[in-house]
Input
Amino acid sequence: MCPGPMLDKARESEEGNLRLLNELRAKHHNQTATMSATPSILIEQVKLLVSANSANSSAINHA
Output
């Protein structure tokens, strides 16, 4: 086999591997960003629940 086609095949494989690596890096970056945002979202949700619970308790106590 000529070295030309083998080099082309190796180059295609390397380009495919780089593409896959970049996709995995992007996916990891997105997961990391999501994970770091989650606690603050949960804190906001808890604040809303506590606020709603307090409002309900006040309404019940004044009824």
